[in-house]
Amino acid sequence: MSTAARVSGLYIDGEWRDAAGRIEVVDKYSGDVLADVAEATPAHAKDAIAGAYRASESPLDEGERARILLRVADLMEERADQLVDDYVGETGFLEADARGELRRAVGIYRLSAEEALRVAGEQVPLAATPGSENRLAFTTRVPVGVVVAISPFNAPLSTVAHKVGPAIAAGNAVVLKPAEKTPLSAINVVRAFIDAGLPPGLLQLVCAPGGAIGPALLDDDRVRFYTFTGSTAVGRVISAGAGLARTHLELGSNSVSIVAADARLDDVVRLVATAGFRKAGQVCTSVQRILVEHVRFDELTEALADRVAGLKAGDPRAAGTDVGPLISEAASRRAATWVETAGRSARLRVGGERSGSVLTPALLAEPPEESEVLTEEIFAPVVSVVPVRDVDDAIARVNAGRYGLQAGVFTQDLDRAFHAARTLRVGGVMINDTSSYHADAMPYGGVKDSGHGVEGPRYAVQDMTDPRIVVLNLRRPE
What we know:
The protein is of the alpha/beta class. Helices cover about 40% and strands about 25% of the residues. It has helices spanning about 40-55, 60-80, 80-90, 95-115, 160-170, 185-195, 210-220, 230-240, 265-275, 295-310, 330-345, 370-375, 390-400, 415-425, 455-465, and strands at about 5, 10, 15, 20-25, 35-40, 125, 135-145, 145-150, 175, 205, 225-230, 245-250, 255-260, 290-295, 345-350, 355, 360, 360-365, 380-390, 405, 405-410, 430, 445-450, 450, 465-475. The strands form 6 sheets. Strands 3-2-10-9-8-11-12-24 form an 8-stranded mixed sheet, sandwiched between helices. It has a 7-stranded mixed sheet with strand order 15-18-19-14-13-21-22, with helices on both faces. Strands 1-5-4 form a 3-stranded mixed sheet, covered by helices on one side. The longest helix has 22 residues, at about 95-115.
């Protein structure tokens, strides 16, 4: 995307539209304007839903869905340099992050293509039901209809893929609303679908702040499924307003990794150095808290401080940069304030210095239990290390919190690992890995204030289809 290019963020019924309102997309490091994007209004949102509803009445056959999804994956690979350039500019993430997420998105569309060919029901046994001896029953799975997909700024390629890929694979029509700070990646994805031959109406795009068009998207009975990734506060609004439509909500977190006394600390340090600071800590599963058995607390803290001190923050395009800017200066300011507040009672071992939207990677030791860095989602390159009595103490602390997305557990004791996996109230437990591990084929989602429902093409396709029972009343041949 050329600097200050004027582009449309509205794709409705097969046409790119202009609008009076504009969204300025800025480079998250330099502040330069990258693009001027047409902004959707509530009326545009209603037009998009209406168009999607009409298109949903003539779903594609499974083979055509698969063909289009595979072509989208191929086109994204062919256009990798453009996609990466736009991604780095609008997110502030490193080129390595961009290329890694692009590979993931391509894989998600290919997984979705495979699932399009696997949409199937099952035979239902009726022999034990009196009067049903001559009946044959089976289910088919049919598209739910219209899916509204609302994606976040921190994964504008892979999260869009996790929502749009399975929805198209399931035979639905989609209204996509990306985060207003990172719409360029979504625009590029929509262009790939157009060029792959997706018929008009099956994918609509509306770029705007959530508060501007959210009520219009939510207050419409033609929508049968909402898939949203974002804050718990907004998730509650969607849950309350969705009515009888189904929802998948991937919400907030302050993910934890538990370190037992027998853990291999070299592995912990190496993995946390990536999982706590990748994308400047702006990942739902980023390691925000480390709960370590007290006998290893000092050793782990020292080793982590040495590793974190070596991370370089700054221009995401510069060689040697490990951590780029946060999504905005306001986000950086908030995180720095939380670190400063916690640091009055804790030891700030390294980092926490702010310059514009850049925050140097920070490591806090023993912040107060009630501090925001432990109880809320910081979404910044900040990791806190807390000593605990033992693993059971750590599990109790995790379960007492309001979030439950994923957790990591480092131990060489198989019994302890399984105990943690059985008792932690989270959506996923990673043994000898951090909370940040994620493979796109696996079910991914949280509990408690981290939401409900799971991503992963296989599981999302099931959620985005309805079972339909078919019963044949057969006569015996005479």
